[in-house]
Amino acid sequence: MSVKLNTRQVGDVSVIDVSGRITLGEGSSTLRDALRELAGKGQKKILLNLGEVSYIDSSGIGELVSGFTSVTNSGGQLKLLNLTKRVKDLLQITKLYTVFDVHESEASAVRSFA
Amino acid sequence: MPPRMPGMAGQKPAPRAAAARPGSRGVLDFAERCNLFWPFDLAAVLAGLRMPDNSGPVPRTVKQSLDSTLDSVDSAEELAVGMARSAGFDEDDLVKIGMAVRESMVNAVVHGNRYNANKKVRLSVATGAERFTVRIADEGEGFAFEHLPDPLSPENIMRTSGRGIFLIRSFMDEFQIRRLDPAGTEVTLVKYMVSK
Q1: Nearest CB to A24; choose among B70, B159, B170
Q2: How many CA atoms lie within 13 A of A42 on its CB side?
Q3: Whole domain around residue B155: which residue ranges?
C-alpha cells in the first residue's frame, strides 16, 4: 500500500490527512505534490495529520523537512499532528522532533496557528 | 506433532503425480512423512524448523540477485522481515530490521546502481544461532563512505537527504561497509539473535 492523502479546510488551516507509507517513490512524491499544490494556492497554514502513517523512511522524512522549509520560507507554517510511535521515534532519533511543532489534538493544533 | 498450515484441515496429502517434476520427489516424500497437507508453503515450514535442542532456528541463508528497481527494495524488505519474524524477533526489532534493509537497498538501487537495468543488487539474508545477517551489494562506482556528513550536525539537520546510513547504524547491532573489487559497494547488517 502506498500513501493516500485527503485535504480539507478547518477555517483558514489546510489539513492533510495522510495514511499509508511515505517511502521513496510514489509515497514521498505524492506528499511533495500535495504540499506544492497548497503552496501554489497561497495556503500559509498547513497541518499534516500523520495519525494513519504506518511507515516512513528517510526519503519521507526528507519530504517533511523539504515541505517545512518551503512553507516557512514562504512566510507560512507547517505543523504535525498525531505522530505514531514509529514516526515520533524517527524524528527524535534524527533530532527533528524539536524542529517541528507537533500536536496531539487537532483543535489545539488549529488554534496554535498565528 | 507434524507441522500443519493454518486452515489446511481436510486438505488431501500432496499428490504423487507432482513427483514427476525433477527435484520435487524428495520434497513430496518429506511432506508425506510429516503428514503435511497440500498445498503448503515449504518456505514457511522450513522457516519454522528449530534446532533439536530448541536453541534457535535452523540456520539458513537466502540469496537473491535483484533488479535495480524500487520493487526490489520492497521485496528485499519483505524477505528480510519474514525471515527475521520466523527467527523470533519481536515487532520493534522487525521494524528496525525492515527499515535498515530498506535504506540499504535504496542506497544500492538509487545511489549505487542508479536504476541501471544492467546492474544487479546481490542480497543475502542469513539466520544463524547468534546472528541475523543481511548483506547487500551493488555494482556501482562506490563512494567515499569514510567521509559522510553528520546528519545531526546543525548545518545538516535541515537537509532533505543523507540520513540513510545513520538510521541503519541506529537500528542494527553491527554495520559494515566495504568496497568491492573491481567495482561496487557491499554493506553488512547484523542483528543479534534473541535468546529464548
Answers
A1: B70
A2: 1
A3: 60-192
Q: What is the reported pTM?
A: 0.80
**Residue B54 in domain:** no
Q: Which residue has the cell 521513496?
A: A24
Q: Hey, is the C-beta of A92 within 8 angstroms of any chain B C-beta?
A: no
Residue of B nearest to A62 (CA): B160
* Helical H segments across chain B, by residue range: 25-33, 42-48, 70-86, 91-106, 164-171
Q: Do residue B82 and residue B163 come from a single domain? A: yes
Q: Are B35 and B2 in contact (CB under 8 A)?
A: yes
- As for how many domains chain B has, the answer is 2
C-alpha cell at B37: 497437507
Residue B179 host element (H or E): strand B174-179
For chain B (196 residues), the mean pLDDT of every run of 10, in chain order, is 44 46 54 58 56 65 97 97 95 96 97 97 96 97 88 93 95 97 96 79
> CB of B161 within 8 Å of any CB in chain A?
yes
Cβ neighbour number for residue B78 with a 10 Å cutoff: 13
Residue B161 in domain: yes
Find the closest chain A residue to B99 by CA distance. A57
Query: Considering only CA atoms, which of B134, B132, B110 is closest in space to residue B122?
Result: B134
DSSP B136: E
β partners of residue B133: B126, B190
